[in-house]
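Session log. Operator J.P. requested a structure for one protein chain; no other inputs attached. Running the standard single-chain path with C-alpha cell output.
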Amino acid sequence: MAKSVVKRFLDFCHIPYWLFFVLVLILILRIPSLFEPFSYGDEMIYLTLGNAARKGLVFYRDIHDNKPPFLYYLAGISGNVFFFRAILAFWMLVTTVLFWRLVKKLQPKNNLFQKIAVGIFALLTTIPLTEGQIANAELFMLMPTIIGFSILLENKANLKQIFLAGVMFGLATLFKVPAAFDLGAVILFWLIFINKPKQIKKFVTHVTFLAVGFLLPIALSLGWYYLQGAFSEYLIAAFLQNVGYLSSWRPDDVVEPFLIKNGPLLVRASVIIIGFAIIWLKRKSLDKTLIIASLWALTSLFAVTLSERPYPHYLIQIVPALSLLLAFLFAFPKKQQVFAPVPLTLIFAVPVIYKFWYYPSFPYYERFVLFATRQINKEEYFDRFDGSVNRNYKIAKFITESSYPDEKIFVWGSTASVYALSRRLPPTKYTTNYHINDFYSKEAIIHELSQSQPAFVIIQPDSENFPKLQSLLNRQYFLIKTIDNATIWRLK
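Structure written below.
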C-alpha cells in the first residue's frame, strides 16, 4: 500500500525513484540544522532585520545591512532559526528537482550523468563543509538562477522566454549581487556559436531582451524604496557599498598604483578571457554540456573570488557547474572526458589559493546524535557551537522579561544574537560592531545613544574597548546585572 502511494506521488511529480531517495537524504541531513541555536552571525542579522520589517521599519533607511532585500523578507516570514531553516530545506528540495530537470535537458539519455550531477549538487548544498545547512543568500539564489538557465537552454527559446529568464536572474540578484555574474555564462555561450555576420543581430536582440528582463525586478525594487523614502540608502547599501566590499580585507592604509591595487581583479578577468578563447577555439570538438558547464564555472568563480574573503558559503555558487563537470568526467564518452579536468583543476585551485575556510561535517552530525540521544544536555550542545551562545540566551531572557516589546536596546558586541533572540531592536540602524566601524562611526553612535536613550545597554565581554560608551553609561545608566561577564545597564 505504502509503495503504491509513493509510486503515484512520484508519477504525479514526474520524478524517478532515485531522485526521491536523494530528496529523502537531503531531508535527513538537514534535520540537525533545525535544532541549531541562535548562533550564526549572519543569520542573526537577517532575523533582526526581519523582525524590524514586522515592526514597520524600512530596510536600509531604518535598519541596515549590505545585501538586497529578499533574504531579509524570508527571515521576517520565518521569525526564528527553526522556521528559517525549514524554509531553506523546502527551498532546496525544490531547487534540487529543478537542477535535475536542467541536467536532464542537457543530457536526456545519460541516466548515470544525471545521477552523479544531482547527487553531488545535493550533497554540497546540504552539508556543513560549505555551510550548506545555513540560510545564506547563496543557497536561495540558486533556484531562480537554475530556472533562468533552464529557460535559456531551450533549443528554440523565443524572446518572451529570454525576457523571463532575465527576470529570473534579476530575482536571484535580489538575494545577492554576485548572482548577476552567472548571467555572463549564457551570454558567452551564445557568443561562442556566432558563425555568420547575420547572427550578430540576433545575438544583440537576445542580449537586449535578457538585459531588460534582468533589470526589471531590480528597477522595481529601486522604485519601491524610492516610494519608501529610502532610494539612496538602498542603492548605496545593497549595490554601491558592495563595490567597496571587493577585496576589502586588503590593508587600506597603503596607497598603491591602479594596476597593483586592482591586479588580482584584472588577473581573474584575464582568466575568463583566456578560458573563453580556449573554448571558442575548441568549440567544434566539445559537447555543449561541457561548454556551458565550463563557462558557468568561469563566471561563478569570478563572482566567488570578488571580495577575496574565505567564507565557505561563497563556494555554493560554483556547485552547479562543479556538479556538471564531475558528472562529465565520470559519465561521458572517454574522447570528451579529457577536457573536463581543465576547468575542474581551476575550480579546485581557487579554495586553495584563497585559503577558503571549511567546516568538518562528521563532527557536526556526531554532535547532534549525542544531543538527540541525550548523551549531552541542551546547554552542552549549545556550548559546542560557540562559547557565547548560552550567555546570549540568558541575556535575551533577562531582556525579554525586563522590557516591553517596543523598547529599544543597544548591544555592543560582535553579533546580533541578543537582538534576534529577544526580538528587541537597536536605537540605531546598525546591529553589530563591524557595521558601526565599517559604515558609521563610534562618535555618531554616542550622539545617537545620547538622544534616543535606549532602555538597556549590553556590553559583551568579547567586544572591543569603547571608552566613550563607558563614559555615557556612567552618566546616564546604572549597572543592573552581570551575566557571564557581560554587563547589562539600565537607563536611570
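Operator note: Residues 19-38+80-353 form one domain.
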